Amino acid sequence: MSIYVSIDTVSILDITKKVKKMVTKALYNLSLDKRNTIRDSLVHEFSTYSLNNAHITRITKYANVSRSSFYTYFEDIYDAYCWILEDYLVEFQNMDELNQISATLVFLENLTDSVDYSFWRLYYTINKSLLYSHYKSADVTSKAISHFKNPSMENLSEWAFRITLHALIQEYFLYPKKKDEIIINIKKLPSIINKH
């Protein structure tokens, strides 16, 4: 199940690609059922707890794997989180602006599964900052995790679009009472960005 949310996909996917290298082949050597059980346990944990409150003990108990097996598959809890995050994002990393708007609207308007909603709410309200802090302190190429890469004049419009859309999606989860207003602003975004 892949869901798309148009964020600064370049920076997040850069992180998850680096992390994917850390996820061991042992994980992919597991049966699909076992891998899905681990995935489900991670989604459950990260939909219930923020990264700073998530516990490997709960994940391993729910997945019925040992703690040492967890560390065979993942370097740490951040590695496991990025594996799940990439699963949500990877399919849509190269969409143009109009497709990003459409996909974002479909995603937000159809986000009825409480587990997925909770995952994204925690991502936008807490986990995104924790990821950036963790990987920045771990010195995983700060260029890869910076929202504010130096945009050239040619791609300034695209950069402004991505940053603004990302901020609107974040507001969607931070201010649930303003969802309708935020959806309207997302729909207006291409014309606003293209005017300037």
Describe the structure in your own words.
The termini are far apart. The protein has a single domain (about 1-195), classed as Tetracycline Repressor, domain 2 (Orthogonal Bundle). Residues about 1-10 and about 140-150 have low confidence and may be disordered. Helices cover about 70% and strands about 0% of the residues. The chain is mainly α.
List keywords for this structure.
196 residues, mainly alpha, Tetracycline Repressor, domain 2, 72% helix, 0% strand, disordered N terminus, Homeodomain-like_sf, HTH tetR-type domain-containing protein
| Overall tally of domains | 1
Q: What form results from the Cα inertia axes?
A: elongated
Indicate the CATH class. Mainly Alpha
The biggest beta sheet reads: none
Order of helices and strands: HHHHHHHHHHH
* Helical content (DSSP H or I, runs of 4+): over 70%
Q: If helices are DSSP runs of H or I spanning 4 or more residues, what is the number of helices? A: 11
Q: How much of the polypeptide forms β-strand, as a percent range?
A: under 5%
